[in-house]
Write a structure and sequence with these properties.
By secondary structure, this protein is an alpha+beta fold. Helices cover about 35% and strands about 20% of the residues. The protein is globular, with a radius of gyration of 21 Å. The N and C termini lie far apart (about 50 Å). Pfam families: 2OG-FeII_Oxy (PF03171), DIOX_N (PF14226).
């Protein structure tokens, strides 16, 4: 590499930080990772083996085969009781939708930084473009860019994703992006509701028990782009955390970089183009009364290749109460978490707490504090 490209301009870095964004084309040229992106050594322990992720074939379940459904439910129960992670194949999603979604996100992330900043995430909003989450944090920054937008499928028949892109400054060139992601999100929501059904079966409760929470909820779609990094041993694409949402359905490209913490060690997850990664989030841990573990995971970066992933976060309707089925509480003998709404947990993670492996425990303490109860959203 040209040594001229390896100089970190402190002035440029200062300007970038003051404006709360980082230009990935600039970041990729740095031989030394900027200080804001360096993670402490305890977060950087290598994953030296491949995780034998449970692979769930949904074909029989989707066709109504009772034996196949029970077998899948048993596999899911074991996975979720230990690490909260599995992959699904024969899931009914047209893979051409996945390819189209990648094409559309590639077109966006290849835009000049000033164009992307035209749809930047504003303070207090969940939606838009973010470079390294520098709008929220100043250290241990993730080596990535994201584009987040909402999806819900209420009875208004309004194509919310299509409308979102039409309302941005991206112009006519990105009208098809809205159409493509509208279809992708519809497929993800349908798959998510099916996974919720089999999760209920695996817990021994009515298969439609959780449906009322999610059928009119607003979910989160996030496109992740991880630039190549000259010093991948000191940076992370995403730090170790559990998702505060209910369920994450992720498709990762063939570069790889997703690590899961299982059996007391970090392990790599080999990409499968025909599979979706599914992981349990904190909200479903509460909905299962702690029986199912929220998955601790991270994303590493690559020296030679960029990496992309598509993440759909299934969320309950914000004002509906998150509480486990009474049948489970009776069997367990105690209720492990207080009732809460998704809007309260979202408010906590957006305003007071950076999601990690202890989000749910710290949220519970926050929720139960007398000062908090007077100021809940």
């Amino acid at each position: 590499m040209d040594s001229g490209l390896c100089l970190v301009s402190s002035n440029h870095q200062e300007i970038l930080h003051q404006n709360h964004f980082y230009d990935p084309s600039w970041l990729q040229k740095q031989c030394k990772v900027p200080t804001n992106f360096v993670w402490p050594k305890e977060y950087l322990v290598n994953a030296n083996e491949e995780f034998q992720a449970p692979l769930i074939d949904l074909d029989g379940f989707l066709k109504g085969n009772e034996e196949a459904t029970n077998n899948a439910a048993k596999l899911i129960s074991k996975a979720c009781s230990t690490h909260g992670f599995f992959q699904v194949i024969n899931h009914g999603v047209d893979l051409s939708l996945v390819g189209e979604a990648y094409d559309q996100m590639d077109a966006f992330f290849k835009l000049p930084i000033d164009k992307k900043l035209g749809v930047r995430k504003m303070k207090g909003s969940m939606w838009g473009y973010s470079g390294a989450h520098a709008d929220r944090f100043s250290s241990k920054l993730p080596w990535k860019e994201t584009l987040s937008f909402p999806f819900h499928d209420n009875n208004s028949f309004e194509p919310v994703v299509t409308n979102y892109f039409n309302s941005t400054s991206l112009g006519e060139d990105f009208q098809q992006t809205g159409v493509s992601f509208q279809k992708y999100c519809e497929a993800m929501k349908k798959l998510g509701m099916k996974v919720m059904e089999i999760l209920a079966i695996s817990l021994g409760v009515d298969r439609l028990h959780y449906k009322y929470l999610f059928e009119d909820g607003c979910s989160i779609m996030r496109c992740n782009y991880y630039p190549s990094c000259q010093e991948p041993s000191v940076a992370l694409g995403t730090g170790p955390h559990c998702d505060p949402t209910t369920l994450t359905i992720l498709h990762q490209d063939q570069v790889g970089g997703l690590d899961v913490f299982a059996d007391q060690k970090w392990q790599t997850v080999r990409p499968r183009s025909d599979a979706f990664v599914v992981n349990i989030g904190d909200t479903f841990t509460a909905l299962s009364n702690g029986r199912y573990k929220s998955c601790l995971h991270r994303a590493v970066v690559n020296r030679y290749k960029e990496r992309r992933s598509l993440a759909f976060f299934l969320c309950p309707k914000q004002d509906k109460m998150v509480r486990p089925p009474q049948d489970i509480v009776v069997i367990d003998g105690t209720k492990k978490y207080p009732d809460f709404t998704w809007s309260q947990l979202l408010h906590f993670t957006q305003n007071y707490y950076r999601a990690d492996e202890a989000t749910l425990q710290n949220f519970t303490k926050w929720l139960l504090s007398s000062n908090t109860r007077n100021h809940l959203p």
